[in-house]
Amino acid sequence: MKFLALLSLVTAATAAPAALEARGATTCGSTSYSASQVTAASNAACNYVQSGTTAGGSTYPHQYRNYEGFYFNGLSGPFYEFPLRTSGVYNGGSPGADRVIITGNCDEAGQITHTGASGNGFVACSGTS
């Protein structure tokens, strides 16, 4: 019985797309996000990017041009930004200040925020360079 449970876990883990890989918690300004909140936002962004749709009547996810020059773990774009929220996955309306960044292949690149940035720019959340 334990073997079957382990086998099903291994099968699920090896079949998971990049968007489902484990992600770490982050802090953007004074707002902390759990790993599961980051994962949920990244997965939603991935689903929208892959289907060519957006959340509610919003423009998210949309392409992020990385004018700030973040390294994003050496990943290459195109990059897409999607709101990161403490109260569930974004589905339209005000996006708030915080974002997850994914690639077009749904690799998570990092998290960024408008909090503490000048103008309409971004600064890195913890764990993003």
Structure at a glance:
With 129 residues, this protein is of the alpha+beta class. The protein is 24% helix and 22% strand.
CATH superfamily descriptor? Microbial ribonucleases
Q: What's the end-to-end separation, in Å?
A: 44 Å
- Could you spell the SSE succession in H and E letters? HEEHEEEEE
Rg over CA atoms: 15 Å
User: In order across it, which strands form the biggest sheet?
Assistant: 3-4-5-6-7
Major beta sheet summary = 5 strands, antiparallel
Structure classification: alpha+beta
Number of strands: 7
Segments where pLDDT lies below 50 for 5+ residues? 1-22
Q: What's the CATH class label? A: Alpha Beta
Helix count, DSSP H or I runs of 4 or more residues: 2
Q: In the CATH scheme, what's the topology name?
A: Nuclear Transport Factor 2, Chain: A
Give the overall shape: globular
CATH architecture: Roll
Any overview of this molecule?
One of its GO terms (molecular function) is hydrolase activity. This is ribonuclease T1. Residues 1-15 form the signal peptide. Belongs to the ribonuclease N1/T1 family. It comes from Trichophyton violaceum. The chain is α+β, with helices and mostly antiparallel strands and 129 residues long. It has one domain (18-124): Roll (Nuclear Transport Factor 2, Chain: A), CATH 3.10.450. 24% of the residues lie in helices and 22% in strands. It has helices at residues 2-15, 35-51; strands at residues 26-28, 31-33, 62-64, 79-83, 98-103, 108-113, 123-124. The protein has a 5-stranded antiparallel beta sheet with strand order 3-4-5-6-7, covered by helices on one side. A two-stranded antiparallel sheet has the order 1-2. Strand 5 and strand 6 (108-113) form a beta hairpin.
